[in-house]
């Protein structure tokens, strides 16, 4: 079955407690549950991961080769700084959707730059936890429907 890695970066383990006025009160476990329900409906397998470490995230992106057909990436603050994550996506050639809970373009200037967007199929931001479901729908459409 088509498999998608949903990878969350630094500080996202604190979702639900961290700046709830920006990121809401839904926890990462609850987001994972929403993704599992959506994945079942869409007919894709998912693996849901979180790491606070750039190197671990790079290893997980490399390991998509031969294992996952798509990557949904909320790289947190590494989005705005990490050429290494961008290179990992390019090297793995895995179709990637960049995702953010908040609308990064309505926030501080330093959040307007994204290294991930340069190598992504597309970007979803500003829809809170629902963005994960939207990203899965977009990825499933790309991998399953757009093939014909
Ligand atoms: C975030 C936005 C980033 O700018 C921030 O550093 C995060 C979370 C989001 O999901 O809105 O950690 O990726």
Summarize the structure.
With 148 residues, this protein is an alpha/beta fold. The protein is built from five helices and five strands; from the N terminus they run E-H-H-E-H-E-H-E-E-H.
Task: Summarize the structure in words.
- There is one protein chain.
- The protein has 148 residues and is an alpha/beta fold.
- The chain has one domain: Rossmann fold (3-Layer(aba) Sandwich).
- Helix content is 36%, strand content 18%.
- The chain is built from five helices and five strands.
- It has helices at 20-23, 28-42, 54-62, 83-92, 130-145; strands at residues 3-8, 45-50, 70-74, 96-100, 122-125.
- Strands 2-1-3-4-5 form a five-stranded parallel beta sheet, with helices on both faces.
- α2 (28-42) packs parallel to α5 (130-145) and α3 (54-62) packs parallel to α4.
- The longest helix is centred in the last third of the chain and has 16 residues, at 130-145.
- The protein is globular, with a radius of gyration of 14 Å.
- The two termini are 17 Å apart.
- 1,3,4-trihydroxy-5-OXO-cyclohexanecarboxylic acid is lined by residues 11, 74, 76-77, 79, 100-102, 104, 111.
Quaternary organisation: single chain
SSE order, one letter for each helix or strand? EHHEHEHEEH
Structural class: alpha/beta
What percent of residues adopt helix (DSSP H or I)? Answer: 25-40%
Bound molecules: 1,3,4-trihydroxy-5-OXO-cyclohexanecarboxylic acid
Give the biggest beta sheet: 5 strands, parallel
Which strand order spans the largest sheet, edge to edge or round the barrel?
Answer: 2-1-3-4-5
Which key phrases capture this entry?
148 residues, alpha/beta, Rossmann fold, five-stranded parallel sheet, 5 helices, 36% helix, globular, binds 1,3,4-trihydroxy-5-OXO-cyclohexanecarboxylic acid
């Amino acid at each position: 079955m088509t498999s998608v890695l949903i990878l969350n970066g630094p500080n996202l383990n604190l979702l639900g407690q961290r700046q709830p006025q920006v990121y809401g009160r839904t926890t990462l476990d609850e987001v994972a549950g929403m993704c599992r329900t959506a994945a079942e409906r869409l007919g894709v397998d998912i693996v849901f991961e979180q790491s606070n470490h750039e190197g671990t995230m790079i290893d997980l992106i490399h390991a998509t080769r031969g294992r996952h057909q798509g990557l949904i990436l909320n790289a947190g603050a590494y989005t705005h700084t990490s050429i290494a994550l961008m290179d990992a996506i390019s090297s793995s050639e895995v179709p990637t959707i960049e995702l953010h809970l908040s609308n990064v373009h309505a926030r501080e200037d330093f959040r307007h730059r994204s290294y991930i967007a340069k190598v992504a199929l597309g970007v979803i931001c500003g829809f809170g936890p629902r963005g994960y479901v939207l990203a899965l729908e977009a990825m499933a459409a790309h991998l399953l429907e757009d093939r014909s």
